[in-house]
Amino acid sequence: xxxxxxxxxxxxxxxxxxxxxxxxxxxxxxxxxxxxxxxxxxxxxxxxxxxxxxxxxxxxxxxxxxx
Length: 67
Description:
Elements lengths: L1 H18 L6 H21 L2 H17 L2
Helix pairs in contact: 2-3
């Protein structure tokens, strides 16, 4: 029963998070994608929270500059 409740909460949270991205501009979508890719890359290279946050910040900046 607890697993079913956890799955429902996760699905509701996922649906609300994705619906918030519906009216993003192209620059905002690129910045978000860059932040995700940069965060994953930073974590793989550095392996700690600082590297993940730094990678996400740099990825967001670079992603927002893509046209």
